[in-house]
Structure formats: structure tokens, C-alpha cells
Design brief:
Blueprint: E1 9-12, E2 18-20, H1 26-39, H2 41-47, H3 50-61, H4 64-67, H5 72-79, H6 93-97, H7 103-106, E3 115-117, E4 122-128, H8 144-147, E5 163-169, E6 176-178, E7 183-191, H9 200-205, E8 215-221, E9 232-238, E10 246-248, E11 266-267, E12 272-276, E13 281-287, E14 292-294, H10 296-302, H11 310-315, E15 322-324, E16 329-333
Parallel strand pairs: 1-15
Antiparallel strand pairs: 1-2, 3-16, 4-5, 4-15, 5-13, 6-12, 7-8, 7-11, 8-9, 9-13, 10-12, 14-16
Helix pairs in contact: 1-2
Length: about 325
Amino acid sequence: MSPFNMTHQFIDRHSGKVITETLLGDRMVDFMYSKLRESVPGLFNALTSSRMTRVLGYLRYDGLFNDHHIDIRRVSGQLGINLEECLEPIKTLRQLFERKIRYWDVRPMKETARHVVSPADARLLVGSLDDMALLPIKGKFFDYPELLGAPHHREYKLFHGGDVAIFRLTPDKYHYNHVPVSGRVLNVYDVDGVFHACNPGAVVCVVNPLSKNRRVVTIIDTDVPHGTMVGCVAMVEVVAMMIGDIRQFYSRYYYDNPQEIKVGMWLEKGCPKSLYRPGSSTTILLFEKNRVKFAQDILTNLYRCDVNSRFSIGFGRPLVETDVRVRSEIAETKHAV
């Protein structure tokens, strides 16, 4: 069964309701990944290239007819975007997707030192890197040494047998990433790659798609004074089709005085870290073995059999996403060193 022939549902964490997702551009992605990828691979490769992503992103969000004639309230209403959360007036489609929100008011964070928080408004899957039922050989989300760049990066050994959280941002989401833990930056680097779509159907169709895309990797040591004490955490920000850039910065207070992230810098949990350009994208957190315990409601939702998830047919078992809010608690430390 093709993943594009079924609906895709997730569970809203706040209400507990099962929601059917409207996948933007689903027909186009279906055509690309079900037909074009096999019949015309050269054209498929061109469409997932950096150059085409920039062109598609410009036409979608900056084209002549978009910014000058768009009805922001109509579009935001269709996508379920709450303009009342926005920090600044929204006049263009790009501004809508790159919006700043009053996160300190509308995404409050509990003062709990030993908890990991969500880096984004996103749909979340969690699991273990050793759980071959979650990451079967024929349909992995990613190969984690490849995800981190290459085996010559010493950091990849830190996460052997560890845990993973995969956050899928849809086009309607707030596109700032926030820091999920407090700690010091051990390393930060770019990994070049292509621009596969993050549509669930596309992820199922392509082996290891998330470790093929262009991405930014930040390794954070939390076993330091005032840190979250969950060991080292890899935060991997993955671009996708129509996202040609990830703007890296860190703002300690609101969005003020953004700084380039560098080795040795202190990152405070819950603060803005980066901005995806418009579209859909994915943020991945890797944890060391036996250092975190995921929230029970997220684990319970993951294995529900009454929810139609495209990931379930692609990976051979129930894999149901939970819609979570940025800065909300998703895990806690198992033990501190």
C-alpha cells in the first residue's frame, strides 16, 4: 500500500484528540516520490537540489503575486495560525512563516532544572537508537553516524545505544527552534546534503531521508554547573524542500541581540536558537544511553493502534506522532553524574 493513499493522523497533546492532518502539497509530493523518483531520477534529483529549493521557496513565499495581494488573515485562518500570538504586525506571506511570537507568554516554560523541553512547535516521535522495530533496516528515518556527518566526528560515539526525539515542523508552525537543554556547546558544524520533503509519505518512500538532507549539528554538554544533567545532547536541524537556509543565532532575552553560536558558548534552555526559512522541516535530538526518560503520555500515544499514521505502514508497527508545543516538557533525566 502506498503511504500517499491513506490519511495521516496525530494526537494533540493538549486535548488528547486524534487530528487528521491536511498535508500541504501532498499531490505534488506523491507525484515526485511515487512516480518521478523511479521513472525520471535525473529530474527528481534536480528538484531536490539546493538551487531548485531556492527557486521554489522564492516563488512560494516571495513571488510577485504573493506579498502584494495576499490576505494574511484568510491564509492564517486556513492554516490555523493565531495572529494574536505574534510579536509584530504581519504583512507578507514570508513574514507569516518567519513570525516571532510572545513565547514568554504564549509558550510558558516550567522552572524545572532536570527536564528537557521541546525545541519547536512540532509533531513528535520518540524512541531508542537500538530499537530496530522503530528503525528497521529497510525503512530507517536516518542512520545516526551519517546523520551527524561521518564516523570521523568523534561525537557520534557518544550516542551509541541512546535515545532519539524527532520533531516534524509543518508549514503552519512557528519556525523558530529553541534550546531544549541548558549547557555548553561542545561542537557546531554544517553537513551538506540534498533537500528531500519532510512529508510523512516521502519519509517512508526514501531510505534514511533525514540523514541525506542538509543540516546543522550542535552538540551540547549538559553535565556542567547549572546544566540540565542529561549528558551530551545532539541537536540536528534538518532543512527540507523550499527551506534553503537555517539562520543560526542565540538570543538570551526574547529575540534581542542574536549571537552566532560558537564552541564554548553557554546556551540557556528555552531561548531562541535558530530560524528555519519557510516550509516544512525536522529537528532531531539525540541523547546518550540511559540518560533520559520520555514523558509517559508521549510514549503511550506512540503505540496506539486506533490512529492512521503513514509512518505505521512504512515502518511496520504503530508510530503515532504527538503534537507538542515549544518549551513544553518532553523528557526528564534518569540520573545525573
